[in-house]
Amino acid sequence: MLDALLAALGGYLNGIGGLGLGNLVMIAIGCTLLYLGIARNIEPLLLLPIGFGAVLVNFPGGGLMAPGGFLRTIYDAGVVTEIFPLLIFVGIGALTDFGPLFIDPKLLLLGAAGQLGIFLTLLLALVLGFPLRDSVAIGIIGAMDGPTAIFVSAKYAPHLLAAVSVAAYSYMSLVPILQPPIMRLLTTADERRRVMPPTKTVEASRAARVVFPIGVTILGGILAPQGLPLLGTIMLGNLLRESGVAERLKAAAQNEIANIVTLLLGISIGATMQAEIFLKPQTLLVFGLGLIAIVLDTAAGVLFGRLYGLLSGGRINPLIGAAGISAYPMAARVVQRVGQQENRKSYLLMPAMAANTGGQVGSVLAASVMLAALAGLGIV
Amino acid sequence: MSSDLQLGVVIAIVGTVGTLVLLAVVALFGALLRRVFPAGR
User: Fold this and answer.
1) The pTM is what?
2) Using the beta-carbon criterion (under 8 Å), do A115 and B16 form an inter-chain contact?
């Protein structure tokens, strides 16, 4: 009787005894993410479930990430299979208006410069001693695109998934703070004050909007088929939006699917934040490299904008180059705000939206090319 | 240069050029669609 009582009490107190310092630190980090999401409104839809997942998974007796556990089951079903980020892409496609790229398709090219941070950071990670697969996952933070970062890191470095995902979403939310100083540093006052000529065409025809996602999917399938899961799902979502004949599916993709998967994806990422996995010096390095990736993206975009401005005979304000990243439409709004601060007569929103659309497509294409190159090298 | 770094350089070159080429193709496709299906139709 006494033995049974002691055994029962032992099980009851196991929760306290099993908690290590690392678990307590991770619970504090989870609570910090909850604070940032709830009190500071920083990416709350992601940081809230991630933070809560991080708290949940750091009670060793809970068994949430043990085989058959609640979070393990969700993680295996959606992250290991890479289904969650792809379903999120269907939602993003259904929410994205690709119309601005028809204003001036040439501005789409600014979206290529905005991906340079991916590849430079990949090299930097390699120089710092990270293995190739880890470096690929770290570099992809420069895509500034949460689902792409999750898709690639789940594939090549699942042990870095939490660090890469949290870094990607955190830095995306910091775009309005991170970008303006770089934009000012790399441009002259005259360039920043430059007024761009008004755009001629505002609206794309419905036919163009419908054919675009179909055509891009086919082109992507031919040129970089390894990236087709990413490109195909975003274009499927966009076709649901633009076809005008699948309103219920469009609404489901924009709302129910996106919301449910965001919750499950967030809590799954949080579930990877176990103390023994997350509390390593390399996590801090991943965050540092992620920050560098975003700085490099912005710098490359602005410098490409300057080159474009030079080649266009001064018609282009180089600030719009900073919008060539995937943070949509946040980066375009930052460009508009900085442009207005420099010159009240400068309206950069529409061309910046075109560049921002290029950034969004560009991040998916950059990941597609990288996956294709890795497959070509036999690294899958 | 380590073999990983060499592979990284290859990926960086192919990735940068490949992204630019793919985006140029998408931009050309967008320009074609704008011409074939002008606004208002």
Assistant:
1) 0.89
2) yes
